[in-house]
Design brief:
The protein is mainly beta. It has a domain of 81 residues: Immunoglobulin-like (Sandwich). The chain has a four-stranded antiparallel beta sheet, with no helix packed on it. It has a three-stranded antiparallel beta sheet with strand order 3-4-5, with no helix packed on it. The mean pLDDT is 76. Belongs to the small heat shock protein (HSP20) family. This is Heat shock protein HSP20. Keywords: Stress response.
Length: 147
């Protein structure tokens, strides 16, 4: 004997109009609406090694000169402001998603940061920012003998 579970409906959900639920489902699942709800800020990976913190920001299609990195006390801010040129284009787009014209990302820095050892490099569409740690913050590895 097989037990089959059928999806349950709420009471009186389709009594008024059976098409109401499908219209709202189609409206909210439409790509026109969902594309506008997606954030237009590049994704970030933050990792920590023994001697530094690393920030990787995915921002393809930009140039090194587009980035501005500012450090103010315990806050590092990475920003891009790029003016798009509105030239005459012979292409007829059905969908155009390249819209990283400007963005700003800010991150809090811990007290263990060495502000003199902050480096940034942009390669293959990824901005890599390395923030060094102070000497006292670097934990020395050692073997502890059990007595």
């Amino acid at each position: 004997m097989a037990l089959i579970k059928f999806p349950t409906k709420t009471v009186n959900s389709d009594v008024v109009n059976p098409y109401v639920n499908s219209i709202f489902d189609n409206f909210f699942n439409d790509s026109f609406i969902t594309d506008r709800l997606v954030t237009r800020v590049p994704a970030v990976n933050i990792s920590e090694t023994q001697d530094s913190f690393n920030i990787e920001l995915a921002a393809p299609g930009l140039q090194k000169s587009d980035f501005k990195i500012n450090v103010d006390k315990n806050l590092i801010t990475i920003s891009v402001e790029r003016k798009e040129e509105n030239g005459t284009d012979e292409k007829l787009y059905s969908k155009k998603e390249f819209s990283y014209s400007s963005f700003t990302r800010s991150f809090s820095l811990p007290e263990s940061v060495n502000y003199n050892s902050i480096d940034a490099a942009y390669t293959d569409g990824v901005l890599n920012v390395s923030v060094g740690k102070k000497e006292e913050a670097i934990v020395a590895k050692r073997l502890i003998e059990v007595k």
